[in-house]
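Exercise 7.
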Amino acid sequence: MTEDKRTRLQELLADRALGELSPTLNDELENLLLEFPEEDDGGFDRAVAAVMLSGTAVAESMPSHLMSAVAGKIADKPQEDSMPTAKVIPMQEVKSSRWSWGPIGVLAAAAAIALFALNVDRTPSEFDPVQAKSELLASATDVIEVPWEGTADPSGEGAAGNVVWSESEQKGYMTIRGLAVNDPTVEQYQLWIFDATRDDRYPVDGGVFDIPEGADEIVIPIDAKIDVGQPVLFAVTVEEPGGVVVSARERIVIAGAVSADL
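Solution. The predicted structure, written as tokens, is:
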């Protein structure tokens, strides 16, 4: 009878480690742990963690009966409908015990495959501003294009490029050539969008950006903090790292006025 209770205790511990323990079964588990206080009630939890983390050093320290119990529970655990069904291909028995996977190796491999399947479609693709700009030009019918003009500021002298902006999409991109490389720990560039529907003293913050070393031409997405109603002027200033809420406009490096014909 005692051995039956110990066996039952191990089953409940394994269920709890796998998150399958109901309130009723949890009460049964607590009673059995009171009856057998010498049992380590955290062993199964560590065994599951060792398998899922594929930690060989941790897994090898687990008692064999814990790993076997967990292996059996995971093998019997039904798969969720959202998980892809794997085709099981029989393998020839490996004769040399040196290369035998055992329950730990099999479970670790299964866990790695499952994690890969879950994440393979969730990895975000790298954002390409050049492609994004082309897509905006192709899809939006109200895109305006405004050329940049450099100023007398040493950082903007000789700079060129343009701004494209779609009012309907509230999206746009800056293309910049010839703007001086900046040290982002000292200063950053910040875009301002002057809106005819707003007070000129408070243009819309279009985001901060940097010019990296060796960049002949760079395309930068506009990060307008609020909606822009009717842009009339785009300007880039030099500000402290992180940008400012209201610019003193002491250093305007490039600017572009929206033509009245647009």
